[in-house]
What does this fold into?
Amino acid sequence: MKKSIQKAEVLIEALPYIKKFYNKTIVIKYGGNAMVSEELKENFALDVVMMKYIGINPVIVHGGGPQIGKTLELFGIQSKFIDGQRVTSEDMIDVVEMVLGGKINKDIVSLINRHGGNAVGITGKDGDLIQAKRFRKVKKCPETNRPEILDLGLVGDIKQVNANILITLDRAEFIPVIAPIGRGEKGETLNINADFVASKVAGALKAEKLLLMTDIEGVKDKNGNLITGLTRKDAQKLIKSKVIKDGMLPKVNCCLDALKEGVAKTHIVDGRVKHALLLEMFTEAGVGTQIIEK
It folds into this structure.
């Protein structure tokens, strides 16, 4: 009886959050160890299905960098990275599209559906969802101290997200699962960072929340302690002082961009924790770092 009462208390604790997020859109970037560990994959699928059944509208954007790397190795194609982004050549893009839009996307769809969901897999090219241009970055060359343009090949920078297909799927009670590739200005396929895609999709949908799943606890202070909550101003101070740096910097910037586009709250979530999504959504403590406008 004691265990049953504890379960009832957990449900009661979740009730205010269920009411708050009912019929709201939550965009989730799914990646890292949560996509590798069999137990965490099952947990993720169950979390997403439960969200849908209690009236929340989850939209999934997935990554796949390690899987792309392994497949490229099998084809004898060597990967090169600049500032953490994979340089994507003509030889690579078909492999990238095959892995992201094919294998990974359909595995996630199948997993969610096996647990009672109704997921549909799409890429950024479907319904002209993601219109992009080739990514160009100007950076100072350390040898000459002059600006140089970094060319990452067929890597995309998002121009626009056409959310109509996602709205249509939502009305039909489907769970969209999006592979992060888009259409370039000349019709070419472009490989796009999944965090960037999730941020822009959340902004286009004016989502209630953006959740970025990672393999670390969240944003940490200069002493290595987890920061559970930040405002834009707090985050900008930590960026300026280089406390937020390296791989965490683009994730925080994605959160700030989403807030600017009208997303209510953003979260960097520790995807290594079992049922991380439900803990973040329906408990006071949450899992990771919440970033809000103010």
About this structure: The two ends are 44 Å apart (CA to CA). The first strand starts at residue 25 and ends at 30.
